[in-house]
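Review form for a predicted model. The reviewer records the input and the model, then writes brief findings.
Reviewer: anonymous (R2)
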Amino acid sequence: MSKSTGWGAHAAYPTPSPGCIGSGTLPRGEQLGRPGRQAVDGKDRLVAVAFDIDGVFKYGREWSPDGFEALQKLHNAGIPHIFVTNGGGGLLESTYAAGFASKVKGAAMKPSGKEPLVSEENMILSYSPWKRALAPQLAHRRVLLVGDPRDKVLQVATSYGLKKAVHYQDYAKLHHTINPFRAAKEDGASHTAVANAAEGPIGSHSVGTAHFADDDDPFAAVLVMCDPYEWFEALQCIVDILCSPTPVNSEYDASVPPVPVHFSNPDVLWKAQHPYARFGLGAFKIALRALYKTRLRSLRVPEEMHDDLLASSFRQWGKPTDATFRFLEERLRDYCPPATGQRVESFYMVGDNPASDIEGVRRANIFHRSQGNVVAWSGILVRTGVYKEGDETNGAAATVNGVAEAVEWILKKEGL
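Model under review:
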């Protein structure tokens, strides 16, 4: 087995050249040369693989030199694969896939032969399931969009068919009193009253925020797509909407349930360029939860109601949730030829995070056992990311040095 010996540093995603892998539409079943092996009942048994990205193919801005060849081997063995990340950076799936494909090939020592399949169809970002699961019912409803960069996030929302999505920064700019620190930050001044240029007796200046026609249209959901750059502003906007779906009109509305808040991933920590893990979207959720409960107390909402309000509003997506793993299974099955007697019943997850990738495997197996299904997942941990030697593996079937060894392990296990 080959080992990852060094990762080459690369700059941010380039614009892919024409013909770069990652563009275009996936030809259904193209990567299946033959079924994995024979099942005990004599019918063809297919296997499929889901790859995490951060910590498997890349480490911060460095990329594994083994990724290209590993994917080629899997492709040549006829095993379908997808890529699934709890990130996405507010990019379109097609953009992310093109950049990923370019990086994987660029990091390869001697790339040759047929390029492995990477396209928007087999690139699953943390928010990708929303296009099918949420967008149809929210297409004509007002939703608050949280995440940055702003223009990229809005582009994704538009591509999903969300016609009334409002970005949190635009909302805060429109209602300038929502964030008392925004003007001070932009002016380079202090936000305190003694440093403010406004003068005059009480009542001589307008108080509150301007009213616009859309303010009477209640928010139907908050979509936390990726990490917001302005935590304070995002947190304030979401708490206001949780307390009232028309937050400019009323401070708290007990007559309606809290607006659903969808989080695209639960990762509290993630591996970036810094030598130690950094806070992720899960940390933002923890902060939001604490601030929402604090705000409810200030509004004198009975303490015994807090947990119920949180449970009814906070909706989690991304690995390791069941919703995301059911979506992965569905997408992987899309790639298998509809020949009679063939089915995917064995899935592999290659990842670097026991609490995310391998926990998703554990939950998926619990689900399928409870349903009496023959479907089974196996988790393979790589040592190139969050997981470090001596950490709890959470029941991973194997622990290997990198993506090359992970693919070799799968092929050996399947007799290929």
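Findings: The CA atoms of residues 29 and 285 lie 39 Å apart.
Further findings: The longest helix spans residues 281-298.
Recommendation: see findings above.
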